[in-house]
Amino acid sequence: MHGRVKVRSTAEQEEARKKERGKKLLTYKGAMSRVQSKRDDGQFDEEALEITAKLLVRNPDIATLWNYRKEILQFMRENKEDGDLVCSREKSLTETCIKENPKSYCAWNHRQWIMEWLGDRADWSEELGLCNRFLDLDERNFHCWDYRRFVVSRGGATPREELEFTTAKIENNISNYSSWHYRSKLLPLIHPNESMEVKALVQAGGGETLQPDRETVQPERDTVQPERETVQPNRETEQPDRETEQPDRGTVQSNRESMQPDSETMHSDMETVQSDWEIKHLNKATTRPNWETISGELDLVRNAYYTDPNDQSVWFYHRWLLGPLSFLSNRPSLRSVCARRGHHIAASLSAPIGPESITLTLDESLAPGAWRSLDVSSDKLSSVWFQDFPDNYSDDVEVNIRVSIDSNESPIETKSISIAAGNLSEVFWRSPEEDFDASNDVVERTANLLEEELEHLKELGEMEPDNKWILLTIVYVMRAIDPVKYIKDIEDRLLKLTEVDNLRVNYYRDMQSKYLIENQLMQCGRQTESGGDQSYRTDCSLSGLGLTRLYHCQYFLPVTHLDVSWNNLSNLNGVSMLFHLERLNADDNCLVEIGDIRGLKELRFLSLQHNQLDYSEQLEPLKGLQLKECLLSGNGAATI
Amino acid sequence: MNVKDIKLGENLPERLLLDQHIDFIQKYSSKENEYEYTMTEYLRMSGVYWCVTVMELMGALDKMDRSAIIEFVKSCQTAGGAFRPCTGHDPHLLSTLSAIQILITFDAVDEMDQESCVNHIASLQREDGSFTGDRWGEVDTRFTFCAVAALSLLRRLDAIDLERTVAFVMASGNFDGGFGVRPGSETHAGQVYCALGTLGLLGRLGLVDSDRLGWWLCERQLPSGGLNGRPEKLPDVCYSWWVLASLKILNRLHWISKPKLKKYILACQDSETGGFSDRPGDMPDPFHTLFGIAGLSLLGYEKPQLGSVNPIYCMSAVCLMKAGINIPKFKTSS
Fold it and tell me: What share of chain B is helix, strand, coil (3-state, %, to 5)?
């Protein structure tokens, strides 16, 4: 279906082709019909193997024929046929098919099935040899790479040998994405990150120190068994009881004890199921190599980008390599709690979390209500939650409010606030500075390495001033070193990027918006030096910043007055999180869409002048709001 | 090193040849096309889904033989509950999803045995949360998507372990923010679409590094305006769907150049026979026709207007609404 060129032909040629196709069709139909009747009759014999082989060599994607062959092989084994002969024929057939069509899922899968079937009698080095040959033909064939990982998981090679293999490929070839990708899996396995932070997090989550077997390359240990029992899963409802979802820590620990670091083989250890937190954070830890490895790897990377600065795969890899060793910033952490008597309690976090992971207590009693998400796109994972303030709390008495995040989602974190007697509300807000300092794209402050890298990149940038990869990478590295110091340099480069890489102009603009908002938020934090809870602002201006997107809205939870006028916003996505918003000015943007803001129950003043809200449908979201004033002049829909 | 790409030649179609595409799809099962049609019978159910869906998006569903198609679909359901792609071929999760999508589009989902189908799909889930395509054990995040999409259309997501489903998807995540066939596999746009579709249906898009993945996705756009499926590959119109729908789910569709992509998609039309091919000058087929049209729909193509398409299911939004399927909201927060 892909890459079939439409060929012009004469009437004669057309006629000849039709005839030939007619013949092929008859042969095909005849053979398929014969196969079907034999199978219906329960015939598992040589003839069936012959006919299916002939068909498969021309049509390796007919899965049913491979299935029939598997049935025949099983039958033959039961009847004590020579397994090795049988399998060598399958190997030969699959290899022929793969040669014909290197991207046939069925052919590769059948070969894997055969190897599984052979088990200990499989010749893994032969299989590795097959992979070598096919990767020589096409270094990007992911079927082959996946098959290779399967072979390696059975002991066909060690992680270190595989790493060397990828090194050789990278040094000799041009199209290296698959090799860099494989390295990203191998390095953490060989040189796991066992920093103090990782250990602390693991312990907080209740486990022992990590061993490298947690990360697997091909967790297929329990795959394809002929005639397996089909899995009867536990039919959980959508909100599983948290208790039952705990991984069996006992099992995991005993496995760890028996595994050595830098294990020569890679075993699957997927018997235990990881919690959301583990998935997101521990996997991130174990999917990162240790610091020494990263600096060593940078040499290989630099070599590659100096050799060919336009080789995009190395830049993708580079971005990951200099990613965070500290992933603490991605751990959901409380950033604000806002409570208002008789109304609600709302909490925002640095990253999304499920409602089952947050607990609310008032005066030591568990709150009776349920958390609701302020992220309109999900009620399962959100970074802003609220629930109704319970009844029966008198205004004259102090009430103590405690919000906790429990250990399934992240190490336990608790924040307590009190609404004093006679007061209506209380706010806790913490600057998210640490979320952006060790943000998603940056490494912990090993300043020397980053500074050095910046120098290399700048030098290269001078030789290739229009190379977008270099420009963009410099932006990331600068943000990692000092987002505030480099703000102008970053802005200049992002602007340059919109020129040299115009296809992605909106990406660069959104990134600029993200960095501006992050810097603003960091500034908020730095204003208060008194430690403890920094002051929050209820009045916030993001006017005239050229914003194209509103990032990090969860951090603006306490805000009541927001000004986003004179920007380039085309929608107000994210604003739904500003639960306390009373006044919103979004004049002079390019709004074509308002977004789902019907949850903004406190909103009384809304100004949307000079936008592009030209049709009444675009104003639908305004229904259901309790607005006292709404300004719409300068829109097509204003007259409606 | 030059960027691998194609050059858009002269005299390529610049407007949508809607009537010709309708014609192309109608003729696909005709006698003239018997060879092509027969040689692809191993994926017939999916082929029918592509045709039915694209006709609906083009406003021409009434031109398809509704009752014959429903009969065909019904005849492919096995006693075990799964659907064959065609008579004489073994049932599989891929054809099972396609069958359900066809029935929903024709508002005939009650004509199948839902209970046995649900039970069968649930039986394909393994300990680690992954799904096999059938009893022979191949594991692939595509099958995860098939299972979750199928069950959500039948409103039976309760039948499987959702936490483990999500765990397996995330375990298939990579250094670039993307997703591969299974844990350890390289990121590929098709698998990204399957992963995001799964997470989207289960409300777990918050687990995705959207800026990182969005960047990888928008880097699929080449100077020709077309999209490839992974770095250093040629553009292909089907990626106008896998990549574009993925960006839509992440609320980052504007990170590619819409006009340039539109131009590329239109250039992939075959002005002689109708239909779209993977790139200009190649043979058209229903697969690429659906994804070309669906891509244009996501881009908001007008004149003529196309039916609105749901980016997770790749089905007509109107049909989903009629069937009472709750369309999940996509990422609206960053």
Answer: 50, 5, 45
pLDDT at B330 over 80: no
Reading the block at residue B259, the tokens are 């006009």
Taking CA–CA distances from A245, the nearest residue in chain B reads B163
Q: Is B45 an interface residue toward A (CB < 8 Å)?
A: no
Cα–Cα distance, B82 to B123 (Å, whole number): 11
Provide the ipTM: 0.97
In the 8-state DSSP scheme, what is residue A259?
Answer: P
Mean pLDDT of the region A307-325: 87
CA distances from A555 to A328, A525, A538, A540, A559 (A): 17, 12, 11, 11, 9
Q: Which residues, numbered 74 to 113 in chain A, qualify as contacts with chain B under a Cβ-Cβ cut-off of 8 Å?
A: 105, 109, 113
Pairwise CB contact (< 8 Å): B175 & A184? yes
What string of DSSP letters covers A35-51?
A: HHHHHHTT--SHHHHHH
Q: What is the mean pLDDT of chain A?
A: 82
- Do strands A334-340 and A425-429 pair parallel, antiparallel, or not at all (unpaired)? antiparallel
Distance CA B202, CA B312 (A): 11
Interatomic CA distance for residues B330 and B307, integer angstroms: 19
C-alpha span between A131 and A128 (Å, rounded): 5
Residue B332's pLDDT band (cuts 50, 70, 90): low
Q: Which of B5, B215, B334 to mutate to test the interface with A (most CBs of A within 10 A)?
A: B334
DSSP A479-514: HHH-TTTTHHHHHHHHHHHHHHTGGGHHHHHHHHHH
- Please state, in angstroms and rounded to a whole number, the distance separating the CA atoms of residues A187 and A298: 13
Which of A219, A317, A380 is closest, CB to CB, to B202? A380
Specify the length of chain A in residues.
640
Instruction: Say which range, A268-282, A581-595, B253-267, has the weakest mean pLDDT.
Output: A268-282
β-sheet bridge partners, residue A405? A358, A413
Tens of pLDDT, residue by residue over A193-232, are: 765 555 555 554 444 333 333 333 333 333 333 333 333 3
Neighbour-count burial for A455-493, b at 16+ CB within 10 Å, e otherwise: eebeebbeeeeebbbbbbbbbbbbbbbebeebeeebeeb
Instruction: Count CB-CB contacts under 10 A for residue A1.
Output: 15
Q: What is the mean pLDDT of residues B284-310?
A: 94
Coil/strand/helix, residue A241: coil
How many beta carbons lie within 10 A of that of residue B31, not counting itself? Answer: 7
The string of pLDDT tens digits covering residues B42-74 is 999 999 999 999 999 999 999 999 999 999 999
- A352 vs B38, B181, B206: nearest CB: B206
Report chain A residues whose CB lies below 8 A from the CB of B158.
Answer: 235-238
Helices (H), A345-467: 433-437, 447-463
Tokens at residue B171, please? 């375990």
Q: Which residue has the tokens 């599983």?
A: A240
Give the global pTM: 0.90
Nearest to B39 among A28, A230, A311 (CB): A28
Would you say the C-alpha torsion B53, B55, B61, B64 has a positive or negative sign?
negative
Tokens 């060989």, residue located: A190
Q: Is the CB of residue A316 less than 8 Å away from at least one CB of chain B? A: yes
Q: Is B326 touching A (CB cutoff 8 A)?
A: no
Closest A-chain CA to B208: A280
**Residue A37, burial from CB neighbour count under 10 angstroms (0-12, 13-18, 19+):** exposed
Q: CA A343 → CA A338, A417, A553, A583, distances in Å? A: 11, 16, 21, 19
